[in-house]
Amino acid sequence: MSLMIKKVKYLYLNVLIEKIMKTGKMILGVIAVIIIALLLFIMVSPILVIAEDTTEGTPGVDMAAAFKLPSGFEWIYPGSSYNENGETLHNIHMIDPDNPYGAARDIISYTYGYTPHIIVSVNEQAAEAIFGVGLVDNIRANDAYNGYNNPYATGTMSRGDAVGTAMTEGTFNPLEIPLQALMGNIKVFFV
């Protein structure tokens, strides 16, 4: 009798394992399809990554980048990005307080001729957690405020170069990305 029970348990476990394996294969297939769809979507419509200064009364966009496949990041200057009314990317929260990321999408479409449908907002806490404390100070030290004719600017780089240099000089910690997203310091918007 106990041999019969062992055979039944064995058969039951084999069937259970087969079902788990089939479910696992199906889940992996769905994940693969999602990844492929996302990559195709990014090839057609780049992701807009914006660095927002949330310490200001009304947040402002201090820097942005479009992420495209296969070229990677392309720096976008908020003061040089504007809509048909001349309103800049820096002021999206003032332009449309109810839909600032829709305003960002429209500005990028008007200035650069492509429409991002995914916008990733990163605040200064997330940036410093991911790229190291002092990131913002490092950017400011290198930024020459090109275009602003600021004689007191000590840096010699464009803002894009200053950001890129600060990011590479910092200690990149990718484990902070999901943590900062859970804390609300990185937000993803579909527009």
SSE order and pairing:
Elements: H1 2-44, E1 47-53, E2 60-68, E3 72-76, H2 92-95, H3 100-112, E4 118-123, H4 124-131, H5 135-142, H6 159-169, H7 176-183, E5 186-190
Helix pairs in contact: 4-7, 5-6
Please provide a written account of the structure.
With 191 residues, the chain is of the alpha+beta class. It folds into 2 domains: 44 residues; 145 residues, 3-Layer(aba) Sandwich (Aminopeptidase), CATH 3.40.630.190. 50% of the residues lie in helices and 17% in strands. It contains 7 helices and 5 strands. The longest helix is centred in the N-terminal third of the chain and has 43 residues.
What is the gist of this entry?
With 191 residues, this protein is of the alpha+beta class. The chain has helices spanning 2-44, 92-95, 100-112, 124-131, 135-142, 159-169, 176-183, and strands at residues 47-53, 60-68, 72-76, 118-123, 186-190.
CATH fold naming of the largest domain: Aminopeptidase
Largest sheet: 5 strands, mixed
The count of domains is 2
Give the overall average pLDDT.
85
Per CATH, the architecture of the largest domain is 3-Layer(aba) Sandwich
Q: Briefly, what CATH class of the largest domain?
A: Alpha Beta
Query: Which class best fits the helix and strand makeup?
Result: alpha+beta
**Order of the strands making up the biggest sheet:** 3-2-1-4-5
Flag low-confidence runs.
none
Please give the share of residues in helix.
Answer: 40-55%
Shape: elongated
- Count of individual beta strands: 5
Strand fraction = 15-25%
Radius of gyration: 23 Å
**Order of H and E elements:** HEEEHHEHHHHE
> Counting H and I runs of at least 4 residues, what is the number of helices?
7
The CATH superfamily of the largest domain is known as LCP protein
Distance between the termini: 65 Å
